[in-house]
Amino acid sequence: MPDRLTSLDLTFLKAESPATPMHVGTVDIFEPPVHGDEGFDYESLVALIRDRIAFVPRYRQRVQQIPGRFAGPVWVDDEEFDITFHVRRSALPRPGTHAQLLELVARIMSRRLDRARPLWEMYLVEGLQGDRFAIISKSHQALVDGNSTVDIGQVVLDSTAHPRETPTDTWQPEHPPSALELLAGVFADATRHPTAVLELARAEMASLTGSTSVREVLGDVVGSVVAQRHVQESSLHVKTSGQRRFTTVQTDLEDYRSIRAAHGGTVNDVILAVVAGGFRAWMMTRGEGVGPTRSVRAVVPVSIRDDEDEEPTSLGSRVIASTVNLPVGENSPVMRLHQISYQTKVHKDTGRAVSARSLVGIAGFAPTTLHALAARVATATVRPIDDVVITNVPGPQFPLYAQGAPMLASYPVVPLMPGQGLSVGVTSYDGKVYYGLNADRTAMPDLAVFAQCVTDALDELLDTTKGSRNRASRGRKKDRGTTKKAGS
After folding, report:
1. Which 3 state secondary structure label does DSSP give 36?
2. pLDDT score recorded for residue 325
3. Are 335 and 384 in contact (CB under 8 A)?
4. According to the model, what pLDDT value does residue 425 have?
5. Which residues of the chain have pLDDT under 50?
6. What per-residue confidence (pLDDT) applies to 170?
7. Could you report how far apart the first and last alpha carbons of the chain are, in Å?
8. What are the backbone dihedrals phi and psi of residue 216, each rounded to the nearest 5 degrees, phi first?
């Protein structure tokens, strides 16, 4: 029998609306291939996906409802699967600017995926400045769970300019089960896993009635005086529209390492401190109060080990949601960093937190899947009093390639939660740190201002390390002098 959607998958399908499409995206920018004269075009991308899609069979499956809808739907092969429907072509008027690309991304991410087909799309965008091109991908949160299915962006990239060999794909769609077979599967599942089937049935009925235990819990939270006051005071809580605004920030990873070396903590702590500084400056441009107790509640998913004694060997490592109060009311950038480090230290002290080095060392790792997992966790756990979702995923510090074309940049697009005006996705890759800022188009017309505030916040933290960098530089000169004297 086909796989059945989990209750969490059904939650994502139910949470989706015209104002809150539930897909995760990535914007990757490439240069033409370094080898060969053919370049990279739409046919190249279609051929690449056709070669690699066998590694993610769910990308050729659609959602099939159960007759009567008294049990959860199942994944079935799409008998009419058409790869050219999912892999699309677009272009900017040459020479296409980065701003034009961002506008296109915002419009693509505003549209929901077609539920009658496999829940993903990919776009080749040609015409960028410097003969570059972009690949925009989006996958529904119900599609990628990190175990049975990884994000398609993970399988199309190679660690060398020479594409790896893949076996011949002989896939033929299985005939979808009949109504009788679907019902028989429900009874069989009820015998083997009665609790799971009851939970799925509850989730399916909830999707029809519009009432769930999760929603009731959220309603209780919203009904509290504290929650109401927090939401009213935060400009990040908005009535979400159906349109998006997207922008990016590119920074150097070495800057974060310098700040970490001077003040302690981790690179992740520094990134959160930079975002906190960005929020503080942005709120001030809006004339909002940033008193000493003002904070932004950020949902920050983290990856942990199931077994404390083992390093992760696959992306099946658990991802949990943690809440970090970003101290935007603190005037000192160093104190903001220390306060954030103190909060995140709780997760490190458990011994279960997965280090960035361990994640990047996972065979076949690419950031896209972990961003999808982080978004899944955030969607399932976010509360009305939470202000923003921040996913930060470490990527490999060496170039990746798509059919020989080197990837220059990778920006994540994290979906907006209901009632939230902004989400922040961060990926470190090949010596850079890339921010993808996804915002409600109506609520945040000044998204570019926030992006500049993030850059300024990083510079502000860097300024605090000048003394440390000078001392380190003098120390290196002293060491070199000592070495020279010893060798003479």
Report:
1. coil
2. 96
3. no
4. 95
5. 207-227, 306-314, 316, 351-354, 356, 358-363, 470-488
6. 86
7. 77
8. -65, -40
Domains of the chain (ranges; CATH) run 7-180 (3.30.559.10), 235-398+414-466 (3.30.559.30)
The pLDDT value recorded for residue 347 is: 64
Distances (CA, A) of 25 to 153, 269, 482: 10, 24, 52
What is the Cα–Cα distance from 80 to 87, expressed in whole angstroms?
15
> What is the Cα 189 distance to its own chain's centre?
33
Question: How many angstroms separate the CA atoms of 483 and 161, rounded?
Answer: 40
Question: What tokens were used for 204?
Answer: 């399916």
Q: Please state, in angstroms and rounded to a whole number, the distance separating the CA atoms of residues 157 and 162.
A: 11
Question: CA dist 293 to 224, 273, 296, 327, 330, Å?
Answer: 20, 16, 10, 8, 8
User: What is the spatial distance between Cα 328 and Cα 289, in angstroms, rounded to a whole number?
Assistant: 10
Q: How far is CA 4 from CA 1, 72, 102, 203, 259, in A?
A: 9, 7, 36, 13, 47
Q: Please tell me the distance from the alpha carbon of residue 423 to that of residue 390, in angstroms, as a whole number.
A: 6
Beta strands 401-402 and 74-77, pairing class: unpaired
Closest CA to 379 of 17, 4, 3: 17
Asked if 359 and 427 count as a contact pair (C-beta separation under 8 A), the reply is: no
How many residues in total does the chain contain? 488
Contact at 8 Å (CB) between 102 and 435?
A: no
Q: How far apart are CA 400 and CA 378, in angstroms?
A: 28
- Cβ pair 51, 254 in contact under 8 A: no
DSSP 415: P
Closest by Cα among 414, 417, 16, 388 to 239: 417
Rounded Cα–Cα distance for residues 401 and 23 (Å): 24
- How confident is the model at residue 8, as a pLDDT? 87
pLDDT at position 281 is: 97
Cα–Cα distance measured from residue 40 to residue 33, given in angstroms and rounded to the nearest whole number: 7
Tokens 């972990």 sit at which residue? 370
Give the β-pairing of 23-30 and 432-440: unpaired
